[in-house]
Amino acid sequence: MGRPGLEFWLEKTSAPCGESEEFCADFTVKGGKIRGFANPFSDPNAKADAGTNPLALAVRFEIDFGGELDCSTGEFKGLLQNGCYDVATVLYRFEGTAPAKYDGVSSSFAQGEWTAKEIPMMGVIFPPDSKIGGMGTWGATLADDGSSPVAAGAGLCDM
């Protein structure tokens, strides 16, 4: 759709930290968004058949990506909020977490693990169950094109 699947900016925080704090955020995520396509009806253990189209049942999704980074420990506390996916014009909602480790030398996030759960909804024919969700791994490396950060803008979940 002309945008990166994962985009965000880090902004330096100005709040001082106390000596007894285990986690002290040096940066917060701004303008974070994850966009893509997923197949919520697939078996993750099934092998792909060469004659099938993997996007045949794919649904569009997006979610706001936020969090805080503690540079002294390399700990990133990632949050996934305001997520949605569209099935037959019904927007189903989800949220979760996305912690990772940060390497300041390579300006990269590694060992990231995301977990998401459905948010119960009223008034839909097939309401989601909060026990349903997913998990996976993620990573990111700085891609500085020299441009100033911009807001991720309105998207699917803002409809």
Biggest beta-sheet profile: 8 strands, antiparallel
Number of strands: 8
Mean of pLDDT: 81
Please report the distance between the alpha carbons of the first and last residues: 17 Å
Unreliable stretches, pLDDT < 50, 5 or more residues?
none
Count of structural domains: 1
Helix/strand order: EEEEEEEE
What radius of gyration results from the CA coordinates?
Answer: 18 Å
- The helicity comes to under 10%
**Number of DSSP helices?**
0
Keywords:
single chain; mainly beta; 0% helix
Could you characterize the architecture of this molecule?
- The two termini are 17 Å apart.
- The mean pLDDT is 81.
- This protein has strands at 6-12, 27-38, 59-70, 75-87, 90-97, 100-103, 108-118, 133-141.
- It has one domain (6-15, 25-39, 54-147).
- Helix content is 0%, strand content 48%.
- The protein is mainly beta and 159 residues long.
- The radius of gyration is 18 Å and the shape is elongated.
List the helices and strands and how they pair.
Blueprint: E1 6-12, E2 27-38, E3 59-70, E4 75-87, E5 90-97, E6 100-103, E7 108-118, E8 133-141
